[in-house]
């Protein structure tokens, strides 16, 4: 079972329930991303990918995939009868989420902690939410810093665009050289 996977029985029960029906006791919720799911190369049930195929789909190296498994960021990767890793569509979805978390700047240790919490089940929703909210705050701070940096770049670009059109002699801005 992968980190993001629910039990087959719970999934089937969820499909059979009416939309307004309350969740059954013991049913497991599926942890999904808000972004629309990527199209998988193969349909569920026929989704057994080798490590080289996953490398081609994700752009990650085989070394990175093995490292993710070794540190606990990915767990329960199926193996063929010869011991080769066999990844599923769920594993591809998880790797997509991990990629998004990496882009946020979330430390690897925090991503591993998140993976552990997911494996521990529904009782960890609060801690998962807190971890993601902390990461979200960090992302918003980074966005603000990048906006400030972008404004500085825009001013400099505008300055040089204007300077190229107007051959007026003037004193340099603070921090600019006269060359």
Q: Give the total of beta strands.
A: 2
Shape: elongated
Strand order of the largest sheet: 1-2
| Main sheet: strands, sense, barrel | 2 strands, antiparallel
Count of helical stretches: 6
Order of helices and strands: HHHEEHHH
What share of the residues does DSSP label as strand, in percent? under 5%
Q: In terms of per-residue confidence, which ranges show pLDDT below 50 for 5 or more consecutive residues?
A: 1-25
Query: Percentage of helical residues?
Result: 40-55%
Structural class of the secondary elements? mainly alpha
Explain how this protein is built.
54% of the residues lie in helices and 2% in strands. It is mainly alpha-helical and 179 residues long. A two-stranded antiparallel sheet has the order 1-2. A hairpin with a 5-residue loop joins β1 and β2. α5 (108-120) runs antiparallel to α6. It starts with 7 loop residues before the first helix and ends in a 14-residue tail after the last helix. Residues 1-25 have low confidence and may be disordered.
Key words describing this protein structure:
179 residues; mainly alpha; 6 helices; 54% helix
How would you summarize what this structure contains?
With 179 residues, the protein is an all-alpha fold. It has six helices and two strands; from the N terminus they run H-H-H-E-E-H-H-H.
Write the layout of secondary structure elements.
Blueprint: H1 8-16, H2 51-58, H3 62-71, E1 78-79, E2 85-86, H4 89-104, H5 108-120, H6 125-165
Antiparallel strand pairs: 1-2
């Amino acid at each position: 079972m992968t980190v993001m996977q629910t039990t087959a029985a719970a999934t089937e029960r969820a499909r059979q329930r009416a939309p307004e029906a309350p969740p059954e006791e013991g049913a497991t919720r599926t942890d999904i991303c808000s972004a629309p799911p990527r199209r998988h190369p193969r349909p569920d049930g026929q989704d057994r990918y080798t490590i080289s195929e996953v490398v081609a789909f994700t752009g990650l190296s085989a070394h990175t995939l093995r490292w993710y498994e070794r540190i606990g960021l990915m767990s329960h990767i199926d193996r063929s009868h010869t011991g080769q890793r066999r990844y599923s569509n769920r594993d591809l979805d998880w790797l997509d989420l991990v990629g998004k978390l990496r882009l946020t700047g979330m430390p690897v240790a925090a991503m591993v902690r998140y993976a552990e919490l997911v494996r521990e089940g529904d009782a960890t929703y609060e801690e998962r939410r807190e971890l993601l909210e902390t990461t979200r705050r960090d992302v918003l701070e980074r966005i603000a810093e990048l906006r400030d940096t972008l404004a500085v770049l825009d001013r400099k670009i505008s300055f040089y665009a204007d300077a190229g059109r107007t051959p007026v002699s003037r004193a340099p801005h603070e921090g600019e050289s006269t060359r």
